[in-house]
Amino acid sequence: MSGATGLLRKAFAEAGVTGRLHALDIDSGAELDDGADRPVVTASVHKLCLLVALHRQAADGALDLTEQTECPAAGRTPGPTGLAAMLDPVRMSLRDLAFLMMTVSDNTAADVLLERVGLDAVNATTAALGLDRTHARHTFGELLATVRQDAGPGGARALADPHVIGRLRALDPARTNHSTPRDMTRLLRALWRDEACTPEHGAAIRRLLGLQVWPHRMASGFPFDDVHVAGKTGSLPTLRNEVGVIEYPDGGRYAVAVFTRAASPAALLPAADAVIGTAARIAVDALRAQPARNTREGTG
Hints:
Blueprint: H1 2-15, E1 17-25, E2 31-34, E3 40-41, H2 47-59, E4 68-71, E5 90-93, H3 94-103, H4 107-117, H5 119-128, H6 140-151, H7 162-166, E6 178-179, H8 181-192, H9 199-210, E7 228-236, E8 239-247, E9 253-262, H10 270-288
Antiparallel strand pairs: 1-2, 1-9, 3-6, 4-5, 7-8, 8-9
Helix pairs in contact: 1-10, 2-4, 2-5, 3-4
């Protein structure tokens, strides 16, 4: 795998980012590690942990996913998509809120669900699954509030200043929601093997991950009609992340977690987005080249 690691580092450097990656063959256990145990800021990737906690509570009978929830127009968590960008009151089910949270990364939907599920329950879920280095410190609204506070009176324009970027608590894993690439692939593997939830709820989670609308990161590395990519992105100033599972028509299933930080504070960096797909492809190609790929039989 050393050759693949060199390719990964070259790709990250050419895109102007530092990267952390873990890739895992879900069935054979073969893996590729490049900084997989380094703490990383999850940003919206942590919505996956919330989704799992939601479905585990539903499986236990603690809530009904069809339960209707009111979302008034006032007081919504900021964001450019979903309920966060809408102007009128909305009433919808918990499972439809989850749909918005995962497919378009709706911050308001996430915080409505988080109020129902509880931050402690999210952390209890990751702990129960053995994700010892994964922890949520605050809601998504609270996370964004730290960005506004740390940016100061300059507001969003101040986020172009590297000195301001350097003081953002939201970019420090020790002071915000965090995980490691290895923890995230471990979670994905558990979801695809129906070990994190009951089969019914695992299937519902996998469906939502497969409906994510963003094609510019991990999915960009797999432009094939017969290869399926299901994932969850996460973004903050200079940070671009995605975790997901790539499924091949021959039955190969690969969990990949890529976390990057750009040297430039620019909001639009197409190369930094695309390198997530490039890195995932390098990692999956390396895993598929392993001998275990040629002997897989009867895996589910």
